[in-house]
Specification:
By secondary structure, this protein is mainly α. The chain contains 10 helices and no strands. The longest helix is centred in the last third of the chain and has 26 residues. It holds the Pfam family LysE.
Length: 206
């Protein structure tokens, strides 16, 4: 049986999901405005998170997690707290004067710190459980050969890495960053508000 159509469908759905604005999008763009290295590290962290969720879904663990209400809630509350924390930290950064903000790497997160932030933002989003669980169930036929599942993991990794690295490259562009410095306070205020709002919504959603 030819699984080309199913794999292409999965790639398309995955790309649409990545493009949709959310915590991953905000995490990558925020770090990219600091510098390209931090943005790319965050992007790779997010892509790794997608791979972890996809792997769990392949082994059926995503369905199990979605049934364990208490574990789902633990992930949800931790994710909500982390997003709110990032939002508050963004608000606190508003106290700095624009002249004190440098785009040099010594004032940004290290590669590992940025990677960890991207990974945590993705892994603490419980909606990933439902997304990847339903994606594999609806797109990949039951009893598909092992190589198909291996191919899906590769596709998920490549699509996520390519999209978020492209996003990081775009937002770390010199013109974009110089514009950001001019509009830093309103932009950061909006960014912090969105993060807090996403965290609050995640905490109260069921």
């Amino acid at each position: 049986m030819d699984y080309t159509y199913q794999l292409l469908t999965l790639a398309g759905v995955m790309l649409v999901a990545c493009i949709s604005p959310g915590p991953d999008f905000i995490a990558v763009t925020a770090q990219s405005l600091s510098n390209r290295r931090s943005g790319l590290a965050t992007a790779l962290g997010v892509a790794t998170g997608c791979l972890v969720w996809a792997t769990l879904a392949v082994f059926g663990l995503g369905v199990i997690l979605s049934k364990l209400v208490w574990l789902y809630d633990v992930i949800r509350y931790f994710g909500a707290a982390y997003l709110i924390y990032l939002g508050v930290m963004t608000f606190l950064s508003l106290r700095k004067k624009t002249s004190e903000i440098s785009l040099h790497k010594e004032h940004s997160l290290s590669f590992l710190q940025a990677y960890r932030r991207g990974l945590l933002v993705n892994l603490t989003n419980p909606k990933s459980v439902a997304f990847f669980g339903s994606l594999f169930v609806t797109v990949i036929p039951a009893h598909a050969p092992v190589w198909v599942y291996g191919a899906t993991l590769i596709i998920v990794s490549i699509v996520a890495a390519c999209w978020f690295c492209t996003l990081a490259t775009l937002f770390s562009n010199g013109h974009v960053r110089s514009t950001y410095l001019k509009l830093r306070k309103p932009f950061d205020a909006a960014m912090g508000g969105v993060l807090v709002a996403l965290g609050t919504k995640l905490a109260i959603d069921h």
